[in-house]
Amino acid sequence: MCMTAYDVIVVGGGPAGLGFARALAGSGLRLAVVERSPRAALADPADDGREIALTHHSVATLRKLGAWDALHADEIAPLRAAHVFNGGSPFALSFDTAGSKAGAGPLGTMVPNHAIRRALFAATEGQDGLDLMTGVGVTGARANRAGASVTLDDGRVLTARLLVAADSRFSAIRDQLGIAARINRIGKSMMVCRVMHEADHDGIATEWFDHGQTIAMLPLSGRRSSAVLTLPCAEIDRLAALDADALGAELTRRFSGRLGAMRVLDRAHVYPLATTWSHHFAADGAALIGDAAVGMHPVTAHGFNLGLAGATRLADLIAAAAAKRRDIASPLLLRRYETAHRLQCRPLYDATAMIVGLYTAESPAARAARHVTLRAAARLPFLRQSVSRLLMQS
Q1: pLDDT tens per residue, range 255-296
Q2: Which domain holds residue 23?
Q3: What is the CATH number of the domain that holds 139?
Q4: Does a structural domain hold residue 159?
Q5: What is the pTM of this model?
């Protein structure tokens, strides 16, 4: 049996896993990142249709990691404000940077998910002390205070002082570590596709909780948007099978022509919706980051930002411990990470669940309640400014 020793093993080469590994550059630690996908899929990921609304903090983090400069200029679009509509009412609850230190600057930045993944790989590739093992899966994992080990499907065994799971919201590593998670399969799917439209979006994102559907338009460069439609799974599958002309007409109708006629630019992508909350974000000799810790509902467009923040938080704690020659997997360090990350994630996770519950219920009482809620929030500028600052800084 071939065994190789590392300081940290990361399972999952997505944005959280690669961001975590990159944040440990220069720490002197020996890292292994294990990813089932082939290397070519990491170096040049396929376009998955998803657009990420990056906060100012996430942009700063990507700059620090050396990934921001690998993005192309036409992949970056400012998110100047966000409007929330309910049903047939023309009233919108607005979030922007007015009254904040950012002044008239953008609320955030839109970047395609596949572009971020490509940029993080480019920043991480060739990093000293990092072994990136691609095209290989994990068949077994264990961790305790004495250390951790993983068995790969090619028979190799890796050992380390710390195991980090970054392998999606349905994490197999989390299961093997015996960490339970609350998984909510919502029974709806999200369809995303890029569209061209007649009217200018002015950099404003729109979230419309209409009767029987939720539809969002996320502003991209030019007169382009990412259309995000949420419906029961069977209905989404039917729409995704339409040809481009028919789908464009359907999206135009469902958005009530607010941006004029829409033309679909590329194929639609469908994602069944599920949220997850792990009961613990750490265990003896192990930690969870990214969606393995918290899988957010996409309605807030904030899951990526929380995942990146948690990954770099854990990396900073580990790097500081290594610099002082302390235990990088100590229970105290892992508790500090878990406590801080739970405090950051829990308010948004619970608020998202409340929003989804309120704005997707179709009873007359629920419709009236959400209209009153939007109107009340609009009369509280402090509340709107606080939410805007949270979106910008998290």
Answers
A1: 999 999 999 999 999 999 999 999 999 999 999 999 999 999
A2: 3-73+109-183+276-360
A3: 3.50.50.60
A4: yes
A5: 0.90
